[in-house]
C-alpha cells in the first residue's frame, strides 16, 4: 500500500502551486487518502490541480510490485491534454503500460467495443465517429424499400432535415435490439415493416464497421452482459487505482458500466467532481450516486465572497463553498427590463463592465449565457431574443460541424476521442480526403462511398508511388499540424494530383467553395459570430461572447451575464426564492435542473455577476433581493 506523507506533499507544492502557496488541510486529506472515496469540489477550487499532484506523487512509486497500473478517465481530449501537459515529461511513466489515460469513450472503445466487435464480425472496426456514421446512414437510407421511404417522408411531412435528424439520432435500446431515440424513448411500440427496415439499415452500417459513439457503448454492454464476471476480474487485476475527473458529467450507462468493471473493494476508486454542475444527463437527472462521507474542497479560487454567498442557495447538494477573499467584491446585479427593451440588455451589461473598470485589461473575458438557444415558436424568451443574430450551430466547438477544408485542418475543430495525437491528425486529414470524394460523388462501388481503409487500399494497389508520397506527406502534415503550421496549400496540391491519377478527374471547380471557404467567413456572412461588440470612444471595442450555459461549463470569466430564458417556465421567476437567499429544497426534476443551470452560469465569473430578468419575474420581490445582496438596475 502506498503512503503519502507531508514531505511528498511539500515537493509537489513547489511544482503545482504558485510560489508561497500551500495545499489546504482539505486537499492534504485528499492527497493522503488511499480508500475508495468521492471528492466533491466547489467551482474553481483547484480540483484538477489536486488530482494532478496526487498522480505525480503516485508516479514515484511506479512500477508497482504486482505490475498493476493506474487508470485515469475524463470526458474530453482537452482535459487529457491538460493533464499530460501539466504533469510534464518527468511523469512519462504514467502514460506507459500498464497505465491508461484517456476519455471514458476511448477506454470503452479500446477494451470492450473493439475486441467484442472483432469477435462477432471477424474483422476490425472502420470508424467510431458520429460525423462519419451520420453521413453513412443518410446515404444508405436511399437504398431501402421505396414504400418505407415514402411512408417516412409522409411522417415528417417531406421535411428532409427532420427525417435525416431522426435517422442520425436512431439508437439501439440497451436492453434489447429495439430502436429508440437519443433519450431512450422507443421509436415503435411493436415490430412493423418500417421498424424492421430501419433496424436492418442500422445493423447493416454496423456490419460495415461504422459506428456512432453510442453504438460503441451498446456493444460494450453486450460484452458485459455476456462476460461481466470475467471482465470485472481482469480489470480489478490490471489496475490498482481508478481516478475519474468531472464525475458529474458521467451518464447513467457510463456509471453502470464502470461500476460493473471495477470493484471498489479491490481497486481504489476516487471520483472527482461537483454534483451541482451536472447539467448533461438528459438535461434533468444526475447519474452520480454519491458514496457515503465524500471528501470536500470548499475554498473557491475563482468566485469572490459575495458571488459565493449569492449562488449558495442554488446548490442541490450543499458544498459549504467559501469565496476567494483576495478577489475584489463587486455587488452582483440584476438588470431588469420590459420585454420591448430586451435588446438593450447587452449594451447595459457593457456599460456596467465599463463602470466597474474591468474593460481596461485585454486578458479579461466577458460572456453572456442562457439556458435555451432555440428560437421559441410561442414567442417565449430565449438567447436570440437578446441577440437576434445568435446562431446555435456556431456556439462552441462541440456543436461545430466540419464543413470546409479549413475546418478539417484547424486544431480548434479537430475533435477525436482517441488520445493518440498522431492518429488524431491523420484521421482529420483522411476525413478531408473522404469529404472531397463525397462532394464529387466518387464511390467505391454502386452503393458505398470510400472509407479510410478502402481508399488507402486502392491507393496502395493502383499507384504505389503516389501511396508512398502520401505516407510521407501525411507524416509531415501531422508534425506541422502539431506545431500549428498551415498545410492547406500542400494538401490541395496533393488532393488534386490524387483525383487526377487515381480517378482521372481534372476539373476540380466543384471543390472551390470547400477549398476556399471557412466556417468563420460563413458565420460572418450570416451575422452569426455570436459576439456582441460594444464600441467605446478612443478605446478598443469591448467584446461579449454569447453562448449557452452548457457551452461555457468549466470556464472562468471576468464578468458573466446570465440571461433569463423560458424552459417550461421562466428561470428567474421559477427560482425567485433562491435569488432572495432562501436555502430550501428544490421541488421536482425541472426545478432542480433549472437551479443547476443557474448555478453553473452564475459560478463562472471571478469579478462581476449580472442576471437579466424580466420585470414580471421580480415584481414584489425587490426589497428581499436587495437584502440578499443584489443591486437592481432598471432599464429605462
TrEMBL record:
Record GO biological process: double-strand break repair via homologous recombination; replication fork processing
Entry keyword annotation includes Hydrolase: yes
Keyword Nucleotide-binding attributed: yes
Gene3D superfamilies: P-loop containing nucleotide triphosphate hydrolases (3.40.50.300)
InterPro entries: DNA_helicase_UvrD/REP (IPR000212), P-loop_NTPase (IPR027417), UvrD-like_ATP-bd (IPR014016)
Boundaries of every UvrD-like helicase ATP-binding domain copy: 20-344
Molecular function (Gene Ontology), one example: DNA binding
Record: residues binding ATP: 41-48
UniProtKB keywords: ATP-binding, Helicase, Hydrolase, Nucleotide-binding
Family annotation (Pfam families): UvrD-helicase
Coiled coil: none
Name of the featured protein: UvrD/REP helicase N-terminal domain-containing protein
The organism's place on the tree of life at top rank: Bacteria
Origin species: Peribacillus simplex
